[in-house]
């Protein structure tokens, strides 16, 4: 076995410091550039990343640098490697890279693979579809290509793949099939890949097994143990490079003990989100001590003490891949010196890891300057203005259970029915309308000072006028203003609340070419002025139909931001909840009768371990209720959740106590409705009747079929008709015919119900 480097990372961002990969991908997809242009842009990006990591101190000779590139998604990469292509894609005569994109984005009527959240992050992977007949055999050893490409540039990288167990745990079995039944076929391919890597002289390979940290994947600890033993005994039996298995995102003690009974050479542990195992045999322990999920400067002194207490051969690493954080904090123009001092993005984290490795090797004194700086940053957090604001602390301390309660639902339902007199199965949308290039451009000009406040506002009001006119023409029942003023549903609120800051270059990949700039929640949160009221009242002034007020909920604001770690999350959530409660109150006072508070990330933040879930649900639901319970009975509160897999939070949907809940449901054919009914849920529900993630326009028949299915599970008085999610990523060309079909289909189902009621 060759030695393992003393410092490494689990993975590095790949979208490019200036989103070069995003631009190259979107240009290629739009037919504006050739495949080889995309491929050379990607190669440039990879080599630049390796050089950067080497400048930051990772070894170029010891396999310290992971080859963690992906064109779209690391799980899809394995699907491509295995050739595990669902039948609907098998007859296309297209190049492998185009087939890869077809799986991600759909192609000529073949629906894309489903996309879902990667563990408890805002990154999405493409769900493999595996059944007894899925072809599984090595297509092309892409990890080997990456190794050779780097080798030519004089750098020994560590090929990195999602491990076989996690791959199958994340896969979807067709018709109840258990994907793990194909474990041996998958291992055959991995073994072949490893053998080829070995033959090419690759010293180390990394297999990521985050699946072992989750209780939500339908496997018992015991079964997992057997599967791991079987997989890694087989994988280590042939000729192969040394193997590092990583276990990021959570608690992995028992899996690590199991892995230590196999012949893998190194095991990674997430020491930030999990606990330290008792034993890891004679393996190299790759200690994930620098947090890959946040952007706060590490407590180097504490980390070094902890590392020094670990017996055996230890390598210093990130807790997870750094793909969840932006590249470089030094590029930001921070609004205070404190923020500059407190923050560390991927590059700063690599430097921290290198520092810790040096401290471990040469002793504390060798890194005393770095330790002192980190200590000073932590000390400063306690004193800095805005970190602890007395009035805000008093307000959250004064919250009572009564602040989280509304009048009984029956009373609300009557008051609302009188106030709004909506038809059966009211039609609505989830909030955003297409973010056109013109809107984005106006925002960019406004940011540069080339459009003043009034000019920018005037453009957005024009947009709202046209969105309202369109909805009236379509015949929708409850309208929205379309959210044109928002760059992002979280960032927009962060820009308008105290206690947050936002970044200019802090892009993080969310899925494919789509990125977000997570906001930074560093201080106590409060609202200094109304945020959305003028937009909502402007929109309402244009129509007699109700226009929904539109807010993002506390849990989602937290989930999609980098949150301070010196206060319990539940308390931070209540601060945000109180700020939103003021906004809800102002919307109500301004005559907005329906207010939607989106919580698409409620499921995402659900802890991976069962034992932690109850506490989470208490504070998360509590903060939503705090935000929404201050209103009159005749004010209708809506919420919106996406990303199916509601199973684990199904009772939480009821506990939110919203009057109307819209849910993603189209791709899963309304499966959620009977589950929800079983919990006793009896309020308004809008199961999505078409999938907005696909560019394909749903037909009237398709929508009618889904809505009729929904009408079997939910009485018409409580059923709503809406798309699965917001329309911001779509074009008007797609949106207009889709909504026309939605309105027609709804009319058809209403008529069917009347006929059967008369009969
Ligand atoms: N935070 C967050 N997480 C989420 C979602 C979400 O909406 N927000 N939705 C779910 C799915 N994830 C998504 C993530 C990103 C996007 C998305 O559309 N991202 C846009 C960027 C959105 C944005 O921040 N736009 C800004 C900045 C846009 C921009 O790139 N501006 C140009 C300049 C303007 C121009 O000339 O076009 C630039 O900076 O170069 C704006 O509109 O103001 C993208 O990648 O393209 C959609 C869904 C789950 N997680
Ligand atoms: C990711 S959930 C999106 C909800 C938001 N109101 C929208 O329509 O875009
Ligand atoms: Zn949504």
TrEMBL record:
Q: Which residues form the Cobalamin-independent methionine synthase MetE C-terminal/archaeal domain?
A: 425-746
Q: Which CDD domains match?
A: CIMS_C_terminal_like (cd03311), CIMS_N_terminal_like (cd03312)
- Enumerate the spans annotated as Cobalamin-independent methionine synthase MetE N-terminal domain: 7-311
Q: Could you say which residues bind 5-methyltetrahydropteroyltri-L-glutamate here? A: 22, 122, 514-515, 560
Which annotated residues bind L-methionine? 430-432, 483, 598
Q: Which family does it belong to?
A: Belongs to the vitamin-B12 independent methionine synthase family.
Could you tell me what this protein is called? 5-methyltetrahydropteroyltriglutamate--homocysteine S-methyltransferase
Q: Which gene encodes it?
A: metE
């Amino acid at each position: 076995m060759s030695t393992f480097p003393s410092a490494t990372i689990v993975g590095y961002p790949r979208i490019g410091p200036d989103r070069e990969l995003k631009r190259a991908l979107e240009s290629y997809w739009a037919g504006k550039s050739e495949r080889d242009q995309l491929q050379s842009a990607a190669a440039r990006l990879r080599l630049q990343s390796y050089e950067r990591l080497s400048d930051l101190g990772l070894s170029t000779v010891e396999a310290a640098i992971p080859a963690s590139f992906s064109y779209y998604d690391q799980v899809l990469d394995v699907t491509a490697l295995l050739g595990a292509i669902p039948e609907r894609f098998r007859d296309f005569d297209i190049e492998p890279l185009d087939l890869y994109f077809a799986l991600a984005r759909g192609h000529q009527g073949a629906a894309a693979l489903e996309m879902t959240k990667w563990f408890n992050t805002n990154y999405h992977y493409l769900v493999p579809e595996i059944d007894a007949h899925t072809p599984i055999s090595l297509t092309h050893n892409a990890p080997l290509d990456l190794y050779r490409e780097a080798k030519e540039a004089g750098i020994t990288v560590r090929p990195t793949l999602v491990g076989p167990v996690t791959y199958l745990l994340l896969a979807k079995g067709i018709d109840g099939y258990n994907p793990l039944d194909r474990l041996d076929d998958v291992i055959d391919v991995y073994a072949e890949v490893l053998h080829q890597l070995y033959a090419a002289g690759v010293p180390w390979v990394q297999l990521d097994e985050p699946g072992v940290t989750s209780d939500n994947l339908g496997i018992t600890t015991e079964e997992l143990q057997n599967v791991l033993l079987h997989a890694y005994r087989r994988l280590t039996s042939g000729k192969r490079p040394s193997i590092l298995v990583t276990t990021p995102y959570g608690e992995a003690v028992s899996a690590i003990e199991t892995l230590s009974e196999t012949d893998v050479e190194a095991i990674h542990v997430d020491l930030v989100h999990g606990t330290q195992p008792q034993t890891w045999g004679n393996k190299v322990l790759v200690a994930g001590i620098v947090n890959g999920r946040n952007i706060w400067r590490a407590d180097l002194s504490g980390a070094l003490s902890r590392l020094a207490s670990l017996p055996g051969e230890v390598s210093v690493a990130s807790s997870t891949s750094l793909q969840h954080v932006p590249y470089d904090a030094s590029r930001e123009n921070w609004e205070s010196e404190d923020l500059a001092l407190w923050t560390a993005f991927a590059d700063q984290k690599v430097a921290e890891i290198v520092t810790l490795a040096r401290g471990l090797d040469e002793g504390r004194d060798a890194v005393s300057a770095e330790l002192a700086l980190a200590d000073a940053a932590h000390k400063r957090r306690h004193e800095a203005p805005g970190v602890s604001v007395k009035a805000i602390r008093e307000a959250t301390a004064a919250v009572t259970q009564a602040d989280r309660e509304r009048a009984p639902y029956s009373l609300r339902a009557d008051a609302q029915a009188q106030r709004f007199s909506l038809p059966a199965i009211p039609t609505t949308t989830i909030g955003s309308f297409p973010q056109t290039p013109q809107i984005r451009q106006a925002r960019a000009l406004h940011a540069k000072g080339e459009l003043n406040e009034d000019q920018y506002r005037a453009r957005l009001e024009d947009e709202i006028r046209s969105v309202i006119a369109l909805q009236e023409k379509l015949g929708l029942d409850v309208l929205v203003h379309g959210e044109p003023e928002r760059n992002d549903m979280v960032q927009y609120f962060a820009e308008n609340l105290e206690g947050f800051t936002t970044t200019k270059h802090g892009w993080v990949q969310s899925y494919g070419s789509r990125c977000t700039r997570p906001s930074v929640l560093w201080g106590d949160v409060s609202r200094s002025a109304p945020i959305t009221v003028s937009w909502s009242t402007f929109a309402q002034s244009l129509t007699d139909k109700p226009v929904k007020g539109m807010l993002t909920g506390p849990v989602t604001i937290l989930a999609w931001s980098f949150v301070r770690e010196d206060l319990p999350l539940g308390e931070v959530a209540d601060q945000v909840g109180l700020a939103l409660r003021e906004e809800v109150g102002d919307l109500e006072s301004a005559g907005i009768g329906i207010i939607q508070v989106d919580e698409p990330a409620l499921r995402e933040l659900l802890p991976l371990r069962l034992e932690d879930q109850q506490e989470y649900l208490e504070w998360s639901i509590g903060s939503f209720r705090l935000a929404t319970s201050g209103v009159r009975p005749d004010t209708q509160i809506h919420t919106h959740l996406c990303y199916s897999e509601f199973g684990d939070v199904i009772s939480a949907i009821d506990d939110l106590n919203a009057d109307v809940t819209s849910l993603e449901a189209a791709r899963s054919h309304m499966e959620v409705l009977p589950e929800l009914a079983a919990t006793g849920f009896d309020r308004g529900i809008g199961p999505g009747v078409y999938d907005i993630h696909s560019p394909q326009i749903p037909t009237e028949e398709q929508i009618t079929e889904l809505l009729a299915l929904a009408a079997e599970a939910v009485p018409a008085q409580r059923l709503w008709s809406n798309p699965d999610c917001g329309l911001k990523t779509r074009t008007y060309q797609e949106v207009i015919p889709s909504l026309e079909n939605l309105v027609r289909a709804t009319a058809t189902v209403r008529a069917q119900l009347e006929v059967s009621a008369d009969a």
